[in-house]
Amino acid sequence: MRLSDLPTPCLVLDRGILQRNLATMAVAVARHGVGLRPHMKTAKSIDVARLALAGQHGAITVSTLAEAEYFAGHGITDQLYAVGITPQKLAQVAKLNAAGADIAVITDDLDMARLIGKSLIPVRALIEVDTGEHRGGVTPDSPTLPDLAEALGRSLVGVMTHAGHSYGARSPEQLAVIGEAERLGVSQAATRLLEAGHAISIVSLGSTPTALHAARMDGVTEVRAGVYMFGDLFQMQIGSHGLDGIAMTVLTSVIGRHPAQRALLLDAGGLALSKDHSTAAAPVDYGFGLVLDLNGAPTLGGTVIRQAYQEHGVVECDASLPYPDLPIGAKLRVAPNHTCMTAAAHDRYYVVDGTDEVLEIWPRVNGW
């Protein structure tokens, strides 16, 4: 089976690029002597997880309980559910743990910490620490931190943080500064709790940019990162990888030609690509994705998806190149702005390895 045989739109995953990305992150983390807990929120695939865990200690991060159940069913039991837990979801986690999983949860809420501490089925818990993103967590010096630890009691195993604000950096130097603040903040929180007599075995941090560019990791036990596996146009522009590091693209078909407007119409719109326009704030605005040829090469120059409707993508062709001579039904590939969002509506990957031959089909889990 070839890419030209596939229904569109669909996801194409280049295994060779994926494996290079995995190796790059493994080396980056290993130089600090800490563990890697890959975040599976983007891939949502046991086939990707197995590759990502090669040489690691078999622990992952998840963002939904659907992922948690799916990966536990495939034998990956050591998981961190890295979204603030609720009472109902705590009951779901306890049920999965009773069936053999070992899913840890996070919280920054005192009432929730009390519920976790009183759970009849023990559930490991980490306190979420805010080291600059200001999305969730308590600050490292918060007076609430020891109260949370006391409420969690024996359930407490560690602290975690996420430097999502690293996406605002535009140089390795800026990323290193944010990475150091992330490391310092979460390790300070851990030290406070250790000095208060609490058993802290996990000090967890992570984002792809800081994992790759942080200068130090002392005081940290593990790194969580996820988008590094597939890459995207935004990560490319903040220095996580090059264009050749984008492993996942969307295969799409030409459904309309408009030479006078130097435009094409594709069958990949907002649902297939997402409407994430994160590159608008980056040095180069790629609209809703960069259009590549069937082989995934940038032979169309700066041709981008300029407008995304639900099922239609309007292509603005590179003005410096001749209008592409493509028939209706011709297939192209689109490199995404934000691979996590783009993958979300799809249920499988068509796996290639540097050619247009489809080698495997890898299913993925969706839902919450």
Outline of this structure?
The protein is of the alpha/beta class. It folds into 2 domains: 3-11 and 247-363, Lyase, Ornithine Decarboxylase, Chain A, domain 1 (Beta Barrel), CATH 2.40.37.20; 32-229, Alpha-Beta Barrel (TIM Barrel). 29% of the residues lie in helices and 21% in strands.
SSE string: EHEHEHEHEHEHEHEHEHEEHEEEEHEE
Strand segment count: 17
Radius of gyration, rounded?
22 Å
Distance between the termini: 32 Å
**What's the architecture of the largest domain in CATH terms?**
Alpha-Beta Barrel
Annotation keywords:
8-stranded parallel β-sheet; 9-stranded mixed β-sheet; 368 residues; 11 helices; alpha/beta; elongated; 2 domains
How would you characterize the overall build of this protein?
There is one protein chain. The protein has 368 residues and is of the alpha/beta class. The protein folds into two domains: 3-11 and 247-363, D-serine dehydratase-like domain (Lyase, Ornithine Decarboxylase, Chain A, domain 1, Beta Barrel); 32-229, Alanine racemase (TIM Barrel, Alpha-Beta Barrel). The protein is 29% helix and 21% strand. It contains eleven helices and 17 strands. The chain has helices spanning 15-30, 46-52, 65-73, 87-98, 110-117, 144-152, 172-195, 208-213, 233-237, 270-273, 339-343, and strands spanning 10-14, 35-36, 60-62, 78-84, 102-107, 125-128, 156-160, 202-205, 222-223, 248-258, 263-266, 290-292, 304-308, 313-316, 331-335, 348-352, 360-363. The strands form two sheets. Strands 1, 10, 11, 12, 13, 14, 15, 16 and 17 form a nine-stranded mixed beta sheet that branches. Strand 16 (348-352) and strand 17 form a beta hairpin. The mean pLDDT is 96.
